[in-house]
Design a protein that fits this description.
The chain is an alpha+beta fold and about 130 residues long. The chain contains 2 helices and 5 strands, in the order H-H-E-E-E-E-E. Helix 1 crosses helix 2. The chain is globular, with a radius of gyration of 15 Å. It starts with 9 loop residues before the first helix and ends with a strand.
């Protein structure tokens, strides 16, 4: 018997894995690094080239201090430290839902976006984890 994953498009497999990992974390706030690490490991098990990325996410509202410890806060009230996963030049983010109240765009539970999405510009990659 062949595995179903042999017949599904890779995009669908990536989303299914992301949904499964996402369900393990009912509260995303403050857990982006752990969630990105877990998601990267799961994707790698399926031989999907994924990279855990560290960077910043830009908010519309000046609420950055609510996402960071006092000693982490840099003074820019619109940028927060954030981790996500990069897959094939796209951003795969299962923890962005924590920013829903602070951006004007809709944020789904699983974001899998490329440069054509307005949300893409909110991500500033600083390096790999």
């Amino acid at each position: 018997m062949q595995k179903l994953t042999k017949f599904l498009p890779q995009h669908n497999i990536i989303l299914a894995i992301a949904e499964r990992v996402n369900r393990k974390y009912p509260n995303a706030s403050g857990h982006c690094a752990v969630m990105a690490k877990d998601l990267t490991e799961e994707l790698t098990k399926y031989k999907i080239n994924a990279t855990h990325v560290m960077g910043e996410f830009t908010l519309d509202e000046p609420n950055a201090e609510k996402y960071m410890e006092c000693d982490e806060f840099s003074g820019d009230e619109y940028k927060v430290n954030h981790d996500w996963v990069s897959v094939g030049g796209k951003i795969l983010d299962i923890s962005a839902r924590q920013f829903r109240e602070d951006v004007h765009e809709d944020i789904s539970d699983v974001l899998f976006i490329d440069h054509t999405s307005p949300l893409y510009l909110r991500y500033d990659e600083l390096g790999e984890a």
